[in-house]
Amino acid sequence: MDKFATLNSVAAPIMRENIDTDVIIPINRLVGNAVRGSLGKWGFTALRYKPDGSENSEFILNREPYRGAQILITGVNFGCGSSREGAVWALQEMGIRCVVGSSFGDIFFNNCFQNGLLPVVLDRQVVESLAHEVETSQGAGRISVDLEAMTVTAPSGKRYSFDVEPARREALLAGLDEIGMTLRRAAEIAAFQADDRQQRPWVHEV
Amino acid sequence: MTARTLFAKIWDAHVVADLGDNAYLLHIDRHLLHDLGGSRGLLDLKDRGIKVHSPNLTFATPDHAISSAKGRAGTSKIGVELLQALRAETREAGIRMFDIDEPGQGIVHVVGPELGLSLPGCLIVCGDSHTCTHGGVGALAFGIGSSELAHVLATQTLVQRRPQTLRATFDGEMATGVTPKDLILRLIGEIGAAGGTGYAVEYAGSAIRALPVEGRLTICNLSIELGAKMGFIAPDETTYAYLEGRQFAPKGAVWEQAVAAWRQLPSDDGARFDREVRVDVAAIAPQITWGTSPEHVIAVDQRIPDPGGVADPSKRGGMEAALDYMGLKPGEPIAGTKVDWVFIGSCTNSRISDLRAAAAVARGRKVAPGVRAWVVPGSETVKRDAVAEGLDRVFTEAGFEWREPGCSMCLAANGETIPRGQRSVSTSNRNFVGRQGPGARTHLASPAMAAAAAIAGAITDVRRMGE
Ligand code: SF4
Questions:
Q1: Each residue of B177-208: pLDDT tens digit?
Q2: Considering only alpha carbons, which residue of chain A is nearest residue B64?
Q3: Residues 6 or more apart in contact with residue A8 via CB below 8 angstroms
Q4: Is the pLDDT assigned to residue A34 strictly greater than 90?
Q5: How far apart are CA B384 and CA B377, in angstroms?
Q6: Is A164 near chain B, with CB under 8 Å?
Q7: ipTM at complex level
Q8: CA dihedral B57, B60, B64, B68 (to 10 degrees)
Q9: Interchain CB distance below 8 Å, A111 and B147
Q10: What is the DSSP secondary-structure string of B409-445?
Q11: Mind telling me how many Å the CA of A144 is from chain B's nearest CA?
């Protein structure tokens, strides 16, 4: 998993509500077992490209300086819909390392942490003012994210605190892997199953 | 002892370890794999040199990437590779797979309850967000991503944050022409596509109690479109009658023991929920979506809403973009909108009761010229039951195409898509931009409404079909 500590970058506001993971990456790009590494080009396909395949210059990530953004500022319920982890992979392959928003789809939010993409939750007014600052500076105003200190700094210098669960923060800072950590609990899991088999045999004897 | 919710009872019974900060290591009772992500998970594990922890609690079936044509003709090269990989990797890991043409094959959320694999009080996961469907039998069930899928394969557990609880109470009687799909679409319309985010939703009330299990599965299926990872309905006599005798349901004395345990699951009187919502069922008319989010939903006799009257700029922008994508004008009645395609299928509405409802509308009528209408049964068993009842004939005589079980046109991952700019009425669960194919325009509705649209060639109020 990618480590995350601090980031200072151009940020691109995509403020439309309910951007779903089908929009972030269409399913046809995720069919197969070797899709990773090929997804960056296809992130936001329906918004980014015209039907003839040429770039839609109205889409923010097709414009300078947003093209190089590593941060997305997002509208309500970003990442809703399908559980496809490919949505996170596609964002990462496009160079995105942090998404800032007031709410996220639950499964997407989880998937972000599994891959070292930092989702930052701030009040809706704060998210909107960040987007506004970035837009009025035409993208020149950069945003800083500090996971250690759990702060986001706006182009104006205004600083906002955010919360991350301590365990998730440590895992991101260290790039720790959840499977490795759980495998250390093998004895507890075995004990749970042995006991549960007595209580609920119908679950285990299928 | 304090009154507890159904959710709390099931959650607490699965805690292997409390990890602090609201995070828990939970035991997974059933892990369902499908062709799109199943073999990838198994291969990931193999790469890391880890064995599957509990192959006996893991089950697989192909549904997403296979074609629904006869003989599965036209399945893409990658689709075939995924199918072969699922066969090879499940065999090697000792995981039971229900293959094409076998009873047990089908959309993973149709076959779980149908086989009696999904049971009350179970914790069920699958790498697919509509896993919430299984909540219809009184299970906690939710979708997971690829990393979590590998975690479950390796450990038969998952690290999860305990969500808050929301109870949605549906009281009253459903009017003629109204189905469980309309109830849940209405709720999404009321509280929005993020209204359930962060919550585990319990559906309750007299209207829910009156529903058969298949209708309950439809309700729970759309929990994720409410933003909720899981939604569920307390088990009752209806649930036990549905499950008894199914292939993987417990038998004999163990069945008795299980039912006795399940009777303890419903939320206690006075149990507290973090949020409560009430829906007046009698006031609900057949629903249809007009936009690109399930919350963009109206009654079929209403007009397409005007974003002009909406104050919130991001909501307004979303509505304008949706109308533009859908090629619709605000203020016009939605009924009468011409359609090109009709899709009856998906884990929302492809069970035998759904096909019966659609067939009741199609019987003795003809699909309108210029409309292509597909019926895709949810599973091999649904298909066989439908054929035994003659429903396939009803459909084909009316001009519908009768297909093989799978996800088909719900998601555009198997070569089956609605062409760009064309309009479909679909019984599935997502009207997202591009969901049924690039540029496809999807209207979500119940099976009866979809069949009515196929016959009329336009969005139609199913209640007026007799006129
Ligand atoms: S039918 Fe559609 S929503 Fe259901 S599992 Fe298949 S692709 Fe997902």
A1: 999 999 999 999 999 999 999 999 999 999 99
A2: A31
A3: A142, A143, A144, A145
A4: no
A5: 9
A6: no
A7: 0.94
A8: -140
A9: yes
A10: GGTSSSS--PPTT-EEEESSS---TTTTSTT-EEEE-
A11: 24
